[in-house]
Design brief:
Blueprint (H helix, E strand, L loop, with lengths): L2 E3 L7 H8 L9 E5 L3 H6 L17 E3 L25 E3 L2 E8 L5 E8 L2 E11 L4 E7 L5 E11 L4 E11 L36 E2 L5 E2 L4 E4 L2 E5 L3 E2 L14 E3 L1
Parallel strand pairs: 4-10, 11-13
Antiparallel strand pairs: 1-8, 2-5, 3-10, 5-8, 6-7, 6-9, 9-10, 12-15, 13-14, 14-16
Length: 252
């Protein structure tokens, strides 16, 4: 297993300062954006009626050591509801999990669980991570429909952030795990575009918009300036190319 840093970028101090002044963004932290975690699916409206998590997917924070998708937060209990038929992403045996951090806390480590089994641990060195970080995790021992719990353990507090990611590992089923519900092909964006998203092929040379699935290399216009996508993601309000989330966009 190796750790991959995706396009390291130090966020400008003025942009970080803007984070404190934007209300809900002030409580922002981080979550798994690809393959899409349950909160990412809610934020992109790929799963409807999720409640407040759709507006703050980065805020699933709870005490370290939990094994729940909602971090023990009642307002995010929908993330533990397996009856929601969460769509599972079809993947191979090795999966790249991408975290997006909107507040980059010092990191003890990242942990990945399938059920009660800790599949892998990535050391954070008690350092501040980049704004976007990816880990390659071997899931070859867990074929079929699985829910992976990804945990970001903070280095200087007793807290952690939780993301559950539904996968169809190897593209097949396994005993006790129902097959994925129409998983999107592996070559498609991490989350299917909602009905308000730009149609396929319109993301390049278009105007930036929320609720749109962007892939690496897409170019958009925002406030009269051009930007190129540096990390596949589904856009959210507050993640405009000109703000503190510049790890996702490169001015061109």
């Amino acid at each position: 297993m190796r750790k991959v840093l995706v396009y390291p970028l130090v966020i400008a101090g003025t942009a970080a300062a803007g984070l404190v002044a934007t209300g809900t963004a002030a409580s922002a932290h981080g979550y798994v954006s690809a393959p899409p975690s349950r909160q990412a699916l809610c934020a992109s409206r790929a799963v409807a009626d999720c409640g407040p998590i759709q507006f703050e997917p980065q805020s699933v924070e709870g005490p370290k050591g939990l094994r729940s998708c909602d971090g023990g937060l009642a307002q995010f209990a929908v993330l533990n509801d397996n009856s929601r038929a969460w769509p599972a992403r079809a993947v191979g045996s090795t999966v790249t999990f991408t975290w997006v951090f909107t507040a980059r806390h010092r990191t003890s480590n990242w942990e990945y669980f399938v059920g009660d089994t800790r599949v892998d641990t990535v050391d954070g060195g008690n350092q501040q991570p980049e704004a976007v970080v990816s880990h390659q995790i071997d899931l070859s021992k867990f074929p079929g429909r699985r829910t992976v719990l990804a945990v970001w353990n903070i280095g200087d507090t007793p807290m952690a952030f939780y993301s559950c990611v539904d996968l169809n590992v190897g593209g097949g089923g396994s005993p006790g795990n129902p097959p994925a519900t129409t998983p999107p092909p592996a070559t498609k964006p991490a989350t299917p575009p909602p009905t308000t998203a730009a149609p396929p092929g319109d993301n390049t040379n278009g105007t930036w918009a929320t609720g749109t699935a962007y892939k690496i290399g897409d170019e958009v216009t925002f406030q009269g300036k051009r930007y190129r996508c540096r990390q596949s993601h589904t856009s959210l309000a507050g993640w405009e190319p000109s703000t503190f989330t510049l790890a996702l966009w490169l001015p061109v």
